[in-house]
């Protein structure tokens, strides 16, 4: 009998909103299976997932407990490292979407999903399939007729939408919740967010259409985080991230000093 090979539909990048993000992630890490993100970013079946709004309530205890299980350390060190890991993976689709294609998932925490069932990692982050995507008028998505697409007027309005949803609508409420539980400064926490943006874009630099350094400066200025990190020349002249706050990893039972740490001698 002649074997029949199934032909899978080819995704059209023009009508697949987050295709540029998943392609960039694949180029950065060499795989679609990442320790902190749902495969393909979008969550098709939400069974077992909770909205990230839970991190301003009961879900925060689970996040902090997960950090304590993985790394040990004091309550404030666990909180700082939990935030560092969570904010990196939550922000990455937004940061890459803007830098790679000017497609911005509007990451209000009601559109973000989390679970703690993978014991190998702190938390797994995914996005609802219905998450709105902000695009510019010249993006093919602007004419695709997809219900989740939001067309904004220009670059400035796109960055305004990014800040409103990522920082004001998502990260800041989680920072406030952490501070209600643990005595830790907002500057310490937001320094990790600034560092995560810079590290993510430098890692993606070869797969971006423009300058990663310029993208870093634009996003940090937009989010009001520019004073928390500095880009300095590395050993071979390449830019590396120098932090101005500490993530407290050096206080762990097995101390770690990150590259670019502000306490490195």
SSE run: HEEHHEEEEEHHHEE
Low-confidence stretches: 1-11
Taking the alpha carbons of the first and last residues, their distance comes to 70 Å
Q: Determine the CATH topology.
A: Transferase(Phosphotransferase), domain 1
Quickly count the domains.
1
Using the 3D structure, state the CATH architecture: Orthogonal Bundle
Mean pLDDT: 87
**Treating each run of at least 4 consecutive H or I residues as one helix, how many helices?**
6
* Structural class assignment: alpha/beta
Fraction in beta strands: 5-15%
In CATH's first tier, which class applies?
Mainly Alpha
Helical amount: 40-55%
The largest beta-sheet arranges its strands as 1-5-4-2
What characteristic shape results from the CA principal axes? globular
Task: Kindly provide the radius of gyration, computed on alpha-carbon positions and rounded to a whole number of angstroms.
Answer: 19 Å
Give the beta-strand count: 9
The major β-sheet equals: 4 strands, mixed
Give the helices and strands, then pairings.
Elements (H helix, E strand, L loop, with lengths): L18 H11 L7 E7 L6 E2 L6 H14 L3 H27 L2 E2 L6 E4 L8 E5 L4 E3 L13 E3 L3 H27 L4 H18 L8 H12 L5 E5 L5 E5 L22
Parallel strand pairs: 1-5, 6-7
Antiparallel strand pairs: 2-4, 3-6, 4-5, 8-9
Helix pairs in contact: 1-3, 2-3, 3-4, 3-5, 5-6
Protein described:
This protein is an alpha/beta fold. It has one domain: Transferase(Phosphotransferase), domain 1 (Orthogonal Bundle), CATH 1.10.510. The chain has 6 helices and 9 strands. It has helices at 19-29, 58-71, 75-101, 155-181, 186-203, 212-223; strands spanning 37-43, 50-51, 104-105, 112-115, 124-128, 133-135, 149-151, 229-233, 239-243. It has a 4-stranded mixed β-sheet with strand order 1-5-4-2, covered by helices on one side. It has a 3-stranded mixed β-sheet with strand order 3-6-7. A two-stranded antiparallel ribbon has the order 8-9. Helix 1 crosses helix 3 and helix 2 (58-71) packs across helix 3 (75-101). The model is unreliable at 1-11 (pLDDT under 50).
């Amino acid at each position: 009998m002649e074997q029949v090979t199934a032909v899978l539909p080819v995704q059209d990048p023009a009508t697949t909103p987050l295709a540029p993000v998943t392609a960039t992630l694949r180029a950065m890490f060499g795989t679609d299976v990442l320790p902190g993100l749902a495969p393909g970013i979008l969550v098709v079946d939400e069974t077992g997932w909770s909205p990230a709004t839970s991190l301003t309530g009961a879900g925060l205890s689970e996040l902090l407990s997960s950090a304590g299980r993985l790394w040990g350390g004091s309550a404030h060190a666990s909180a700082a490292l939990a935030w560092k890991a969570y904010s990196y993976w939550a922000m990455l689709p937004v940061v890459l979407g803007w830098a790679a294609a000017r497609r911005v998932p509007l990451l209000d925490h009601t559109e973000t999903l989390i679970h703690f069932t993978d014991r190998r990692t702190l938390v797994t982050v995914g996005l609802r399939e219905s998450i709105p995507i902000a695009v510019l008028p010249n993006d093919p998505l602007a004419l695709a007729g997809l219900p989740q697409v939001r067309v904004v007027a220009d670059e400035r309005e796109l960055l305004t939408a990014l800040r409103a949803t990522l920082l004001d609508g998502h990260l800041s409420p989680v920072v406030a919740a952490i501070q209600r539980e643990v005595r830790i400064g907002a500057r310490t926490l937001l320094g990790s967010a600034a560092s995560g943006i810079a590290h993510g874009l430098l890692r993606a630099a070869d797969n971006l259409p423009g300058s990663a350094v310029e993208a870093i400066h634009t996003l940090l200025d937009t989010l009001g985080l520019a004073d928390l990190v500095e880009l300095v020349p590395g050993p071979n002249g390449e830019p590396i991230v120098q932090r101005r706050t500490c993530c407290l990893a050096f206080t762990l039972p097995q101390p770690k000093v990150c590259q670019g740490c502000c306490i490195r001698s």
